[in-house]
TrEMBL record:
Signal peptide as annotated in the record: 1-23
Taxonomic lineage of the native organism: Eukaryota, Viridiplantae, Streptophyta, Embryophyta, Tracheophyta
EC number of the protein: 3.1.1.-
Origin species: Populus euphratica (Euphrates poplar)
Glycoprotein in keyword set: no
Purpose of the protein: Hydrolyzes acetyl esters in homogalacturonan regions of pectin. In type I primary cell wall, galacturonic acid residues of pectin can be acetylated at the O-2 and O-3 positions. Decreasing the degree of acetylation of pectin gels in vitro alters their physical properties.
Main location: secreted
Protein name (database record): Pectin acetylesterase
Gene Ontology terms, MF aspect: hydrolase activity
Class of enzymatic activity (EC top level): hydrolase
Length: 314
């Protein structure tokens, strides 16, 4: 539980690095009213949402879809907490979203995509848009419907032009970068065969590796997430049939080989989130030996640097 909250906090701050703050373009939120037909709800039962800014000129029939990031919730309590925030309910989302970075409409800041149709998919399921389950014990209800939210948004966008796209790029950062891995093939299948589909993950390549005490901290975290949110049935089928532990197919390293859609992976060498939560989680550094190193790589001992180097390259 403590770990879940810490991960959420770090990812929230990470999410704000993923987009650079530049010019201001505020884009209205669209609630997906048909989502209830297929049971697609945010954690609290509210309707899912996205923001669309139309393309123009040479980009008018190209589409960039970006998953919002923001950690995960992998137990009932952390999901109940999240259901009262913008990452668990459209009731708390800002209705105007700042489109910057890859979503900017300024050609000088975003030369490749400024004139494309650009969509931000709001994240309110806590399971990287991949769950399909419901918790209801009589007093508390939680919808784990990320997969349905993804489907509802795509169904809504197809008649708005996505269905005739010339090019489509699926992207996302952090938990949204993982979503991009998990849904890349789905997007390819949802669009006509003559649409050029590609995907991009920014800081979404979460590794199944042991922490410094040899514990599989991240594996345990994802296993709980997959179980709680009913994600397993939505993971890559070739991967889940191949692995003894199908839940591990939440990690891109196990299903990347089965993907056929062109994919661009962007991950920094010393990914801060994975350094602080997968390699050296608080549970693995009770004495605080890594505290200084975590604050600044320049303060790491040679031994710590070796470990960092080995982990990210091994
Ligand atoms: C339902 O779950 C919530 C959260 O775990 C708990 O606080 C509540 O007591 C539970 N209600 C019942 C009837 O078990
Ligand atoms: C794809 O094929 C359809 C049907 O032939 C055609 O209408 C459409 O313009 C094509 N799209 C692209 C991007 O070539
Ligand atoms: C390793 O993981 C187990 C199971 O999650 C946990 O009980 C144990 O405290 C962990 N050990 C360390 C050093 O984190």
């Amino acid at each position: 539980m403590e770990l879940a909250v810490a991960m959420l906090l770090i990812l929230l701050s990470l999410a704000s690095w993923c987009v650079l703050s530049e010019g201001r373009l505020l884009v209205d939120m669209t609630l997906v009213s048909d989502a209830s037909n297929i049971g697609a709800f945010c954690l609290d039962g509210s309707l899912p949402a996205y923001h669309l800014h139309r393309g123009f000129g040479a980009g008018a029939s190209n589409w960039l879809l970006q998953f919002e990031g923001g950690g995960w919730c992998n137990d009932i309590q952390s999901c109940l907490d999240r259901a009262k925030t913008k990452h668990g309910s459209s009731l708390y989302m800002n209705k105007l979203e700042d489109f910057n970075g890859i979503l900017s409409n300024d050609a000088s800041l975003n030369p490749d995509f400024y004139n494309w149709n650009r969509v931000k998919l709001r994240y309110c399921d806590g399971g990287s848009f991949s769950g399909d389950a419901k918790f209801d014990n009589g007093t508390s209800v939680l919808y784990f419907r990320g997969q349905k939210i993804w489907e509802a948004i795509i169904l809504d966008l197809l008649p708005k032009g996505l269905g005739n796209a010339d090019k489509a790029l699926l992207s996302g950062c952090s938990a949204g970068g993982l979503s991009s891995f998990l849904h890349c093939e789905n997007l390819y299948r949802a669009l006509p065969t003559n649409t050029s589909v590609k995907c991009l993950s920014d800081a979404g390549f979460f590794l199944d590796e042991r922490d410094i005490t040899m514990n599989y901290t991240m594996r345990t975290f994802f296993e709980n997430l997959v179980s709680l949110q009913g994600i397993e049935k939505n993971l890559d089928k070739t991967c889940t049939s191949f692995l003894d532990n199908p839940k591990l197919c939440m990690f891109p390293q196990y299903f990347l080989n089965y993907m056929t859609t062109p994919f661009f992976i962007l991950n920094t060498a010393y990914d801060v989130y994975q350094f602080h939560h997968a390699l050296v989680p608080p549970s693995a550094d009770m004495n605080g030996d890594w505290k200084r190193c975590k604050l600044s790589i320049a303060s790491c001992t040679p031994k710590q640097l070796d470990i960092l180097q080995g982990w990210f390259q091994g």
